[in-house]
Amino acid sequence: MVGNSFKSDILPVLEIGNKQFNSRLILGTGKYPSLDTALDSIEVSQTEMVTVAIRRLQKDIHSTQEKNLIQSLDWEKLWLLPNTAGSKTAEDAIRMALLGREFAKQIGQEDNNFIKLEVIPDPKYLLPDPIGTLKAADYLVRAGFTVLPYINADPVLASHLEDLGCATLMPLGSPIGSGQGLKNSYNISLIIDNAKIPVIVDAGIRTPSQAAEVMEMGASAVLLNTAVAKSLDPVNMAYAMAKGVEGGHLAHYAGSMSTAQYAKPSSPSTGLFL
C-alpha cells in the first residue's frame, strides 16, 4: 500500500514520558513578525507540541489584552512544553520549572509535567551549562517532571542525563538562532546510536533539508523556532519544515541504498536486439 496508510503502518508514534505524538516537529513561539503569522505557522506545521518561555507564559496568562498567543492557541490540540529560557543557574531553572508546571494547569493541562530544561549562563553564544543542567535535571526528575534537557552534543553528558531519568535528550545542532545547521553531526550520531530515549535535535537548523538530514540520521524529532519565524515567509517555511521532518523520518525507516565504489548500470546491458 502507498500513501498515508503505508506510512502509518511502519512509522511508530513519538513517545515522550506518558504522551504520544504523531508529529515529530516541535515549534517555538517567539520572534514571529505578528501574532497571526505565529498562529498560522503553528497550524500549517501540524505540530502537536509548542515550546513557550515561562517568562512569556507568566506575562500572557495574566494579560488583560484582548488577544495574545497563549490565549489564542487551542490547548486541547496542542501540548505545552514550557521552557526555562533566561535561567543562568540550576536554581533559576528549578524555580522556572515549578512556575511552568503551575501555568500548564492554568491552561487546562493538569497532568502536564513537561519541562524543556535550559541553563545558559553564556550571553554571547547561548551555550548550555552542562554542570548546571545535570544539577537541575537531577532535582526536577525526582520532583516528578518530564525533563527534556537542552545540551551540547556531548555523548557522555547525554548518557549521564539518561541515567538520571530524563525523558529525552536535546543536543544542539549549532548555537541558538545562528542558522549554521549541523556543526557536530558525528557527536549527534553517537548520542542517537547510544540513547534508549528520544533524541530531539534543537537549535541551529536553518532549512528543511537540514531537518530532513537530522531525521535521516535517526533523530526522534526536531525542535526549531528562528528558522521559521525569521524566514521571509514563515507560514510556508513551517509547512516546508514539516515536510522535511516527515520525509527524513520516513527515509530513515525505509533505509537508503548502500554505496558502491564503482558505477552500477540501472538498465540491462543486453536485450532483444543484441
Summary keywords:
274 residues, alpha/beta, TIM Barrel, five-stranded parallel beta sheet, three-stranded parallel beta sheet, 11 helices, 10 strands, 42% helix
Description:
This protein is α/β, with parallel strands linked by helices and about 270 residues long. It has a single domain, classed as Alpha-Beta Barrel (TIM Barrel), CATH 3.20.20. About 40% of the residues lie in helices and about 15% in strands. The strands form three sheets. It has a five-stranded parallel β-sheet. Strands 6-7-8 form a three-stranded parallel β-sheet. The longest helix has 21 residues. The model has no long low-confidence stretch (mean pLDDT about 90).
Short description:
This protein has 274 residues and is of the alpha/beta class.
Helix-strand blueprint:
Blueprint: H1 4-10, E1 14-16, E2 19-21, E3 25-28, H2 35-45, E4 49-53, H3 54-61, H4 69-72, E5 79-83, H5 90-106, E6 114-117, H6 130-142, E7 146-151, H7 155-164, E8 170-171, H8 185-194, E9 200-202, H9 208-216, E10 221-224, H10 226-229, H11 234-254
Parallel strand pairs: 3-4, 3-10, 4-5, 6-7, 7-8, 9-10
Antiparallel strand pairs: 1-2
Helix pairs in contact: 2-11, 3-5, 5-6, 6-7, 7-8, 9-11
